[in-house]
Design goal:
globular; binds 1,6-di-O-phosphono-beta-D-fructofuranose; UDP-N-acetylmuramoyl-L-alanine:D-glutamate ligase; single chain; alpha/beta; 4-stranded mixed beta sheet; 37% helix; 23% strand; ATP-binding; lactose metabolism; binds adenosine-5'-diphosphate
Length: 302
């Protein structure tokens, strides 16, 4: 079974505004609400790709209830631990001449809630997949993903981590199966700005030296690169298309990679399915569907 954990789910409020002006009253042209947060998006895209998963994490308040309801409607099984105080985030995604985002901090999670999560994770079995994705509320220590990996280290799991800065770096000694920073997040770890693919490979290799098994680095409109544990290198520009809504593109890439890997245990298939799932989400209002992903793979000869 695949499990995703989202510590900090959100309702994504995606608004488009023509010629947004700071300091003025602006009116939306379109507005829409989706369930969001990285693990949740991974679960939703996996569902679209024909793979069931179990979404775990924490939720609070009326926004939390709505996230669970929307997931249910999507057909994703979830078992979120309810936090009594505060509300799950509403993350604002503003589409105007440029895309801007305001992501909230999320409610505090108490020791007792973490204990409940550990009880759920103790049910994982050898061969299961665990996706730890997204930010954690500000008040939490950034070794929580590491602690989870340490706790589960006696089981044979495939663990995927999509996080930034110390939250990501701390897990490396526990050999995550896959990490997926984007090029800016990879650069941030080393205090450099990375735009060029060769440079990205160099720094991805440094994360591999520190313990990551496979390193997938997304580069938005410039595609992605992958360094595998058996020494293969893949790089590609994305398929062609018009960007409509790139919220969730990175999460779709993780889901696509996972689906591709599970279907054929082949890194090439995983890489291209990840790449095309990311683009399929970016090219449509909603998250990628299987047909859209396969059509894009076909368009690049994969
Ligand atoms: N502008 C775009 N054009 C084509 N594909 C895109 C675009 N933005 C994202 N994608 C696809 O989605 C993947 C992940 O996007 P990216 O923005 O790098 O992730 P994240 O959301 O994690 O920052 C990219 O590698 C690419 O395949
Ligand atoms: O947990 P974080 O890092 O604040 O990110 C949460 C946001 O990222 C998303 O999961 C989208 O992520 P990507 O665009 O990187 O795929 C949104 O749904 C959510 O609002």
């Amino acid at each position: 079974m695949i499990y995703t954990v989202t510590f900090n789910p959100s309702l994504d409020y995606i608004v488009s505004v023509d010629d947004f002006m700071l300091g003025r009253v602006n009116r939306t042209r379109t507005e829409i609400i989706y369930p969001g947060g990285k693990g949740i998006n991974v679960s939703m895209v996996l569902k679209n790709l024909g793979h069931d998963s179990h979404a775990l994490g924490f939720m609070a308040g009326f926004t939390g209830q709505e996230i669970v309801r929307l997931l249910d409607e999507w057909g994703v099984r979830s078992d979120f631990i309810r936090v009594e105080q505060g509300i799950s985030r509403i993350n604002v995604k503003l589409r105007s001449n440029e895309e801007s985002e305001i992501n909230g901090q999320g409610p505090a999670i108490a020791e007792e809630h973490i204990r409940q999560l550990y009880q759920q994770l103790d049910r994982l079995e050898d061969g299961d997949v665990l996706v730890l994705a997204g930010s954690i509320p500000d008040v939490m220590p950034d070794d929580i993903y590491m602690d989870i990996m340490k706790h589960l280290s006696s089981k044979k799991l495939h663990i995927i981590v999509d996080a930034t800065r110390d939250l990501l770096v701390n897990v490396l000694p526990y050999h995550p199966f896959l990490i997926k920073p984007n090029n800016h997040e990879l650069g941030e770890v080393f205090g450099v700005e990375l735009e060029d693919k060769e440079e990205v490979f160099t720094y991805a290799a440094k994360l591999q030296e520190r313990g990551a098994r496979n390193v997938l680095v997304s580069m938005a409109g410039d595609g992605a690169v992958l360094l595998t544990e058996d020494g293969q290198r893949f790089e590609s520009m994305p398929p062609k298309g018009k960007v409509v809504n790139s919220v969730g593109a990175g999460d779709s890439m993780v889901a696509g990679f996972l689906a591709g890997y599970m279907e054929e245990h082949d890194y090439a298939k995983a890489f291209y399915m990840g790449l095309c799932a990311g683009s399929a989400s970016a090219f449509s209002e909603e998250l990628a569907t299987r047909d859209e992903v396969l059509a894009l793979m076909h368009s690049i000869g994969k």
